[in-house]
Amino acid sequence: MRIVLDAMGGDHAPGPIVEGAVEAVQGEPGLTVVLVGDQARVEAELARFPDAPRARLPIVHAAEVVGMDEKPVEALRKKRDNSISRSWALMAAGEVNGIVSAGSTGAMVASALFNAKMFLPGVRRPGIAAIFPSHQGPVVIVDVGANMNARPEDLYQYGVMGSVYAEQILGVDQPKIGLLNVGSEDAKGTDLTRSTAALFRAGPMHGRFVGNVEGRDIYDGNARVVVCEGFVGNVLLKAGEGAVEFLFSELKQEMARLLPEIPEEAGGKIIASLRGLKRRYEYHEYGGGPLLGIRGSCIICHGSSDARAIKNALRVASTLATDRVNDQIIRDLEAAPRVEEVAPPPKGEAE
Amino acid sequence: MRIVLDAMGGDHAPGPIVEGAVEAVQGEPGLTVVLVGDQARVEAELARFPDAPRARLPIVHAAEVVGMDEKPVEALRKKRDNSISRSWALMAAGEVNGIVSAGSTGAMVASALFNAKMFLPGVRRPGIAAIFPSHQGPVVIVDVGANMNARPEDLYQYGVMGSVYAEQILGVDQPKIGLLNVGSEDAKGTDLTRSTAALFRAGPMHGRFVGNVEGRDIYDGNARVVVCEGFVGNVLLKAGEGAVEFLFSELKQEMARLLPEIPEEAGGKIIASLRGLKRRYEYHEYGGGPLLGIRGSCIICHGSSDARAIKNALRVASTLATDRVNDQIIRDLEAAPRVEEVAPPPKGEAE
Questions:
Q1: What is the pLDDT, as a whole number, of residue A349?
Q2: Which residue, among B86, B88, B72, has the nearest Cα to B38 in the 3D structure?
Q3: How far apart are CA A168 and CA A224, in angstroms?
Q4: Which GO cellular component terms are attached (chains A, B) (predicted)?
Q5: Residues B149-154: contacts with CB within 8 Å, 24+ apart?
Q6: pLDDT value at position B50?
Q7: Considering chain A, what percentage of its residues have pLDDT values greater than 70?
Q8: Burial label, A39 (beta-carbon count in 10 A; 0-12, 13-18, 19+)
């Protein structure tokens, strides 16, 4: 298994990125990680790990980096020798099975979408998945921002691909699929949601489809895969992060006010417990969000990824890039009902 | 000022609803609250308050109630003598200035939309506002579910009406308006967001318009009014409630684990502090979400509203129903640029 890693992508690259690659290859004897980036800087980072199996950590030089704040498409055009484009070139040439980057999400998605040959057979538009917490364990939300003009067949495909991700990576057996909507009946929502519900009900996924999931229901975890269009998913993901940050900052203030009044030992325990709780929402464990629908695999990590997040992302990329996983997705997509043949439910009432 | 109150709407109606009405009229000498509902039951509740100024608490009988779980439009058709329809009939007849209900949101919105004569002049589709917390104080989000097919001119109108609400009810001077989107540049997002941004930039609101607001930015509070289409807003609102509930349930478990290890007094203080924090997210203070764009005013309260929430909702309804507020909205809407005359920015890149 060969995965290409954008060594220059991430807020603190290349340090923790290279470190994550070293840990990943040390942990998986069959794994090669191709490091793309500034040769001298990557070499210098690798030199920190004299025991690293260098034969499985080849470097491909790329002189430039797409900045996190640059306009993605513009940056990709101007900086021809950037690490993201070089990494995708290896994917397109079939030299690697998967791609991982903690760099610009926009540049990663734009690079993927530039070339439909990189899509899995049958996929119309790839979608990004993100993990939300729930009372029953992690929930996969697709799409969180790759596709701003989703069609019903796209959301169906996200359900299929999100299920495979939930099974293979999160270990959920036969995950239930829900459709993000504003109410519980099929008639609720928009033309997109009505037609999507009809597709799920008509096809082989009908047994897994639990119908509409409202915003609040995500956290119940009855559906372990929730599909939505990219605009809604992106707002939901970022608002969720904002809400958690906000709440913890309020909690911190509250505790700062309380701590002088309670014994030091008790205070220390509470602070440690709150820190632990916050850490649980930081999702290092799954190492980033996959762009689902790519031949092989593509994982887009958070900019702040540390070595552990990168190591986990490489592990996830390896699992998703196997022929077994890709073939299962292709088979499930082939079995999808055709949107022309399925009548959507009648239009419903306003919420 | 005369406000009609659906005495039968709400999880615990009519008890706390009638109590809230009594408190409201006792607090505001110029206020009359028309109670609509089962005459005998409302009378029985009123009898608990011998000091209540009964002349300012007239009752209008309605034999039926729309259940919270009923399909709104179907229920409104079947139950002709329901308290929501009877309340709207008083609005339509001009007998009251505003309407308040803690009953079915769907039935309240559907009743309002049935009759475009109830819309303020110039309003195409009313929108529901909800309050989110932020580091700079409450933020108004419009629309959270009244309009599933928003046009750019609708989002512009929500910005205008949300501003008036933020000024009059939240006391924010010249509130900044943001557009919910997936990135910071105007080119981001969908045709709807691009055209909406162009409208704000072209019209008299341009000085207040801060451009795109991402999900995370809501909590910064730089924009005190954030506009979006109803589908996105509804998902955002419910997901936000779900996230807060989820986080507090995790916190509760964490504290239950810790409490045996810390002194009882310290534990009590912490529990009280967390309860206080949670209560801050329950929005009783503003008494519910206004349906903006209605002649007079319309406040839709949470089903779990207590007397305090109803009292506050009646106060908000009174403030919003004044001619001064309505005239300001009408004037600001008249000054809106016409969508045909404004070119949207070019289509941008994928997120």
A1: 47
A2: B86
A3: 13
A4: cytoplasm
A5: B149/A190, B149/B229, B150/B125, B150/B192, B150/B229, B150/B230, B151/B124, B151/B192, B151/B339, B152/B192, B152/B195, B152/B196, B152/B198, B152/B199, B152/B339, B152/B344, B153/B124, B153/B199, B153/B336, B153/B339, B154/B124, B154/B125, B154/B127, B154/B229
A6: 97
A7: 96
A8: middle
Using the Cβ of A137 and the Cβ atoms of chain B, whether some distance falls under 8 Å is answered with no
Domain positions in chain A are 1-118, 126-288+323-351
Element (H, E) at A210: strand A209-213
User: What is the widest separation between alpha-carbon atoms in chain B?
Assistant: 68
> Cα angle vertex A214, ends A211, A218, to 5°?
95
DSSP state letter for A116: G
The widest CA-to-CA distance across chain A, in whole angstroms, is 68
- The per-residue pLDDT for range B75-101, each reduced to its tens digit, is 999 999 999 999 999 999 999 999 999
Mean pLDDT, rounded, of chain B: 92
3-state helix, strand and coil shares in percent for chain A, rounded to the nearest 5: 50, 15, 35
Q: What is the 3-state secondary structure (H, E, C) of A256-278?
A: HHHHHHCCHHHHHHHHHHHHHHH
Question: A-chain residues within 8 Å CB-CB of B135?
Answer: 246, 249
- CA distances in angstroms from B313 to A119, B93, B98, B125, listed in the order given: 53, 22, 11, 22
> What is the distance between the alpha carbons of residues A26 and B332, in angstroms, rounded to a whole number?
65
Looking at the domain that runs over A126-288+323-351, which CATH code has it been given?
Answer: 3.40.718.10
Contact in structure between A100 and A310 (CB atoms under 8 Å): yes
Residue keyed to tokens 């090669």: A32
Chain A, nearest residue to B237 by Cα: A215
Indicate if A126-288+323-351 has the same CATH topology as A1-118: yes
Architecture of domain A1-118 in this structure: 3-Layer(aba) Sandwich (3.40)
Contact of B90 with B267, CB cutoff 8 Å: no
Which of these, A112, A172, A179, lies nearest to A152 by C-alpha position?
A179
Contacts for A38-43: CB closer than 8 Å, 24+ residues apart = A38/A7, A38/A8, A38/A14, A38/A62, A38/A63, A41/A7, A41/A8, A41/A14, A42/A7, A42/A14, A42/A18
Please name the residue that has the structure tokens 């109670």: B35
Task: Find out whether A84 and A301 touch, Cβ atoms under 8 Å.
Answer: no
What pLDDT, on a 0 to 100 scale, did the predictor assign at position B264?
A: 84
Provide the 3-class DSSP secondary structure of residue B59: strand
Which residues of chain B neighbour A258 with C-beta distances below 8 Å? 269-270, 273
Confirm if A99 and A183 have CB atoms less than 8 A apart: no
Burial of B328 (0-12, 13-18, 19+ CB in 10 A): middle
Separation CA A145–CA A325 (nearest Å): 23
Q: Which of A110, A239, A245 sits opposite B349 (nearest CB)?
A: A110
Q: Any residues with CB less than 8 A from the CB of A320 and at least 6 apart, and which?
A: A98, A165, A168, A169, A290, A296, A297, A299
Report the DSSP beta bridge partners of residue A127.
A292
CB count within 10 Å of CB A117 equals 7
- For the domain spanning B123-288+324-351, the CATH number is 3.40.718.10
CA gap A298, A314 in Å, rounded: 10
Interface of A with B in 48-87 (CB under 8 A): 71-73
pLDDT score, position B276: 83
The ipTM value here is 0.90
Residue B51 burial by Cβ neighbours in a 10 Å radius (0-12, 13-18, 19+): exposed
CA of A73 vs chain B CAs: smallest distance (Å): 7
Q: Check if A121 contacts B (Cβ < 8 Å).
A: no
Nearest Cβ partner of B216 from A134, A241, A269?
A241
Residue written as tokens 């109108």? Answer: B157
**Residue labelled with tokens 């451009």:** B211
- Return the H-helix or E-strand segment holding A329: helix A323-334
- Which pLDDT score is estimated for A161? 97
